[in-house]
Amino acid sequence: MAKTTLEQSLLELDQLLDGNDPGAVVHERRLPAPPTFTGDEIKALRQSIPATQIVFAQMMAASPRTVQAWETNRSKPNGPARRLMQIFKADPQLAKALV
């Protein structure tokens, strides 16, 4: 029986992890770190959607208190939150699809 692409890939990965070279080609991609946002930039982004702090918090899977802390520079968003903000900044319509 012919192996599926997934099965073949898993077999090659297993061989590679065992120290054997299955002849697989490994491609590595590195994304640059997500940008940092100031409190004013976060607030401007939120308002461009437009969303309240409560709605924006839901979009970001954060609490409204966290969004407030970001906007007042009392705390900084983590990497995944910054990446999501980067996406929303590039296309605010994507944020609207979440609500």
How is the secondary structure organized here?
Elements (H helix, E strand, L loop, with lengths): L4 H13 L21 H10 L4 H8 L3 H8 L7 H12 L1 H5 L3
Structure description:
By secondary structure, the chain is mainly alpha-helical. It has a domain of 58 residues: lambda repressor-like DNA-binding domains (434 Repressor (Amino-terminal Domain), Orthogonal Bundle). Helix content is 57%, strand content 0%. The protein contains six helices and no strands. Helix 3 crosses helix 4. It is elongated, with a radius of gyration of 21 Å. The model has no long low-confidence stretch (mean pLDDT 91).
What distinguishing features does this structure have?
mainly alpha, 99 residues
Describe the structure in brief.
The protein has a domain at 39-96: 434 Repressor (Amino-terminal Domain) (Orthogonal Bundle), CATH 1.10.260.40. The chain is 57% helix and 0% strand.
User: What is the number of helices?
Assistant: 6
Mean pLDDT: 91
Please compute the radius of gyration using only Cα atoms. 21 Å
Q: What would you say the CATH architecture of the domain at 39-96 is?
A: Orthogonal Bundle
Spatial gap, N to C terminus: 46 Å
CATH class of the domain at 39-96: Mainly Alpha
Proportion in helices? 55-70%
Envelope shape: elongated
CATH topology (level 3) name of the domain at 39-96: 434 Repressor (Amino-terminal Domain)
| Beta-strand content bin | under 5%
Given as residue ranges, the uncertain stretches (5+ residues, pLDDT < 50) are none
Structural class: mainly alpha
Find the CATH superfamily of the domain at 39-96.
lambda repressor-like DNA-binding domains
Largest sheet: none
Number of strands: 0
Could you give the order of the helices and strands?
Answer: HHHHHH
